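Worked example

This section walks through a single chain of length 147. The input is the sequence exactly as stored; nothing has been trimmed or padded.
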Amino acid sequence: MIKRIYLDFPNDECYKNYLLNLRWTNRIICPFCGSLKSTRLGSSFRFHCNVCNTNYSLTVNTVMHDTKVDLRKWLITLHLYLHDEKLSYRKLGKLIKVNKNTAYRMINRIQHLFSKNRLLIFKISGLNKDVIEIMSLMLLIDIRRIS
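Given that input, the structure is written out below as tokens.
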């Protein structure tokens, strides 16, 4: 599965484009005011709402928000979290080439996501879609929402 992730998404930008299309299929929606009047800031994955005058990124309000870690590593971390019962912070750090403190924070955020959004994750996991799409949808869950 890890090889497939790197084959499907040769670089971080490819995966960010995939997430962008998953999160906002047709139009970008401001996560703060719900407006459809947003502008993309250059070629980055940052946006500006023309109504509430707020800047935000593709990963705003998700477990991946405010990290500098390659987003493909988040997908790999979620895959390992779901399939490896003996996943330790050190083991994850070695596998995805981050230090153990970063691995600790990544696993903690994913655990928080699963503890607060069980119903939504259950609904997403029941979708008849590709495994990568299902895991990506899980990573895009709004963490402000509690189900």
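What to look for: Strands lie at 38-40, 46-49, 55-57.
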